[in-house]
Automatic annotation (TrEMBL):
Its EC number is 4.2.1.51. Transmembrane segments: none annotated. Residues 201-279 form the ACT domain. Pathway: Amino-acid biosynthesis; L-phenylalanine biosynthesis; phenylpyruvate from prephenate: step 1/1. Keywords: Amino-acid biosynthesis, Aromatic amino acid biosynthesis, Lyase, Phenylalanine biosynthesis. It comes from the Bacteria. It is an enzyme of class 4 (lyase). It holds the Pfam family PDT. This is Prephenate dehydratase. The keyword Disulfide bond does not apply. GO terms for cellular component: cytoplasm. It comes from Loigolactobacillus coryniformis subsp. coryniformis CECT 5711.
Amino acid sequence: MTLRLAVLGPAGTFSDIAAQQYLRQQQLDWQLTYYNSIDQVAASVQAETEYALLPLENTLDGYVQNTLAILSYAELQVVGEALVPVRFSLAANAADLASIKRIYVQFKTKGQCGRILAQLPQAERLTTESNMLSFNKLQTAAHGDAAIIPQFHLAELPDTFLKLADVTDTTENYTRFIVVKKQAAALQQVQPWQQDFRALCYITPQTDRAGLLSEILQEFAQRHLNLISIMSRPTRRELGHYRFFIEIGGQAGQSPVLADALAQLAQRHHVKYLGSFSR
């Protein structure tokens, strides 16, 4: 049976590029299945596909909040990652920027192209679920329509269009994707790695008092585990109550140390281990 990988579509998105890159690097012969939103991608791995690729983090716009929310409640395990460079162009059926009446832009792209959008105060912003949907809007663009699109699609548009080759806010812009499967990661089964690795988890405190977060972080610090990031997320049960999304960077041979830290924390808090992957 051919395994399937759910991807935010249509074909040609950065998610599609990341998925194909991951399959090449891992030498996997999986079938790509495209969906119209991140929520649909995540839902598919619960019912239709074996794996899914989700955007996790961008250099300019930070963590993808929708993905963090999905990881907090879905029974998924992270098994890999892919990193792709991200560059954007602006294309418009218009003579100049002042003539643009509306612009299509993907929901995360807005935070990566803020400078050019600030130059278009007159333009109505229409948010799309994927960059390819923004690009497709240009196929039937009325006069005054514009879109921010992946740079590699710019040459496909008519020469009569206004084209700005690079409207990304910085030259160092990357998006990191994770590959997940339908299976919660067992807390007591941290995969043994013989190379550097990353691990993800959610920790939900069962009490609220001064110094609590410091105590949680010390469990990692005293074991010389590097905390890459920590994000507070609402528990959705009560206003002012939060859980913490934590990404840990480990070195070869530190898997047992991480397992011990998580086991200690699980005695006092709710720990949801999300899995790990090599770097």
